Amino acid sequence: MRDFQFYTPTQVVFGRDSEQQTGQLVRQSGGTKALLLYGGGSVVRSGLLGRVSASLRDAGVACVELGGVVPNPRLSKVQEGIALCRREGVDFLVAVGGGSVIDSAKAIGCGLVYDGDVWDFFERKAIVTHSVPMGCVLTLAATGSEMSDSCVITNEENGKKRGLGSNLFRPRFAVMNPELTFTLPPYQTAAGCTDILSHTMERYFSGEEEVEPTDYIAEGVLRTVIEMAPRALKNPEDYDARAAILWAGSLSHNGLTGCGRGGNGRIGDWACHQLEHELSGMFDVTHGAGLAAVFGAWARYVLPCAPKRFARFARNVMCVKEPDDGKAALAGIEAFEAFLRFIGMPTNLRELGLTLTDAQLDELAWRCSFEGTRNIGSIRVLERADMREIYRLAQ
Amino acid sequence: MRDFQFYTPTQVVFGRDSEQQTGQLVRQSGGTKALLLYGGGSVVRSGLLGRVSASLRDAGVACVELGGVVPNPRLSKVQEGIALCRREGVDFLVAVGGGSVIDSAKAIGCGLVYDGDVWDFFERKAIVTHSVPMGCVLTLAATGSEMSDSCVITNEENGKKRGLGSNLFRPRFAVMNPELTFTLPPYQTAAGCTDILSHTMERYFSGEEEVEPTDYIAEGVLRTVIEMAPRALKNPEDYDARAAILWAGSLSHNGLTGCGRGGNGRIGDWACHQLEHELSGMFDVTHGAGLAAVFGAWARYVLPCAPKRFARFARNVMCVKEPDDGKAALAGIEAFEAFLRFIGMPTNLRELGLTLTDAQLDELAWRCSFEGTRNIGSIRVLERADMREIYRLAQ
User: Fold this and answer.
1) Total-model pTM
2) ipTM of the predicted structure?
3) In principle, which of A17, A127, A206, B168 could form an S-S bond with B131, CB 3.0–4.6 Å?
4) What CA–CA distance (Å, rounded) separates B372 from A5?
């Protein structure tokens, strides 16, 4: 087992009606004036925003609202939020929504106490040393941003989607009511489940090395989502299935499934995420669907570097019985792709709705390699030519 | 899934030489003068206390030392610590040791800011509302106190051993270097592993209800310890086995394996722990060994109330293949007892070294029922007569 750090200070309040505790939680964290950040109108129409707003009022927390955060959240909205918070003297941020809203709040939080442009952090021109505290009311099981140190923002001016990690990004609290996810459309439910699976798999597939109890926990989280996703799709109001997926989403990305792999629990392969970031940066596809579309091509490409690990995945997660490691590994990848198709996810770029030209394949690899300046992956280190080949194989 | 809260703010620094970061961690938490609390001479002889002390000095943290904490830690030592800290103006507590030392530091922490006798908290005459912050350098995988909200102290004047829970008891940091556990004697290693298993099993056996991903995670933690304990006993310097056990110990009692069972992650059956507390309160037996000695009698006694749960344990943890639930359940209990014997733990009171008279059985049940005022257990609620019967069956 490698040295690691584990730090998950987020107070999780999980269950029915938990959003009504938001005001108290802000108050306990010292907030007196909050930005209430949200995305589309569904949060307003469902009455959730009203309930959260009432909870803040009842706790004596003043509040200013900002809506309009979109999936693959935009830098311009972050900048708008920073300007608004400065004008209004906001000292706490409350994100009501999924990962896009939470990530926008994280970016606003660090931008608010920085003199320069917040994009500097994402371009690694500045380091996050302070941040305005934030909490969240989660409406979507997917990114795990509610407990994670991650923040991903897209600069719409240049199409760049960039991630950033800091312990200061971990929310003070996460209010998680599974009922709030009942109304998610099937495609969003499935894409969210794929993202959850990917957060655990990126860590799980970081090498051949076995790390207990982390591997067993990761396998348990994966099996949970693989069993519960079809239940939630069949009956969107299956509380236990929605609850299991919601909690699995947090555990997949708070560091738990990375303990013992080095660093702060984020160490992993991450090639699928990085390959996907360029797809959604250029074509604005749904993140989870993009991950599903590149997984099979990536897995077959890197498989020769870690046949035992893929075989373990096949047996312990996908219930493959095959004794031969090589055959089991391939069968596991196929079984996982069959699962993805079953929940309505694409397993290649064509099914994702993209038909790419050679020039576009070149551009994706060029962007993913940060213009030829970085390699990605750890189970197999991928150079720009490898990235292009995986994009090609994913067609 | 039932509503729950999950709160694990402890910063875990895990790995080789991690004790050298203690001073920085105290400093980051705002400590300027620390009590360095420890148990026996092994911490001194090994040089660990010196290294931690040097780390504090290097970080500019003043320090006063107090040794002599014993297993089943005593109230008198806690009171001694409180008096010392008051005299010296201590503002941070550093426990160097296992659960006894950490629990003593927790009790000192709340007693230090309370006007009355610290035992009031354990008698439920007062509620913990403040505490002096503490961190720990762990030398023993067992109690999980390094991330838990629990504190257990024995009042040697009346032989009462009482537990107490508060989020204020969760350490600010936990330094965990598996190498520090290399020198543990086999009996302590095995008893620690039993305690770890029990912390997860108390939660796992709280009813028939299945809660994913918590059940899968619990099974993974249990399998880890069951696989790694024999490795650590065979080769005490097996780093990966020691590391796996150490980390499993924290995960077993920080609330993770209780998520979705209601409350704050501590909801469980806890009957074995409560039955054992009276044993070690009266006879000063090793906690983990006491747990091992009562498990089988308890399990067979409550089994008719939850055959499916015991069958699931048998299959998913003990690898029992039997298709019939009732037979599988019994086979699982037997397999677990065989494991306990294999690692050198007792499976009844006789093997624990106790031969009890009828009057002693009566007294144990009288004490365990808090003089006839409480029942224990949740998978099956146990009255005083049930407690006596389980003690009798455990002979």
Assistant:
1) 0.95
2) 0.94
3) B168
4) 46
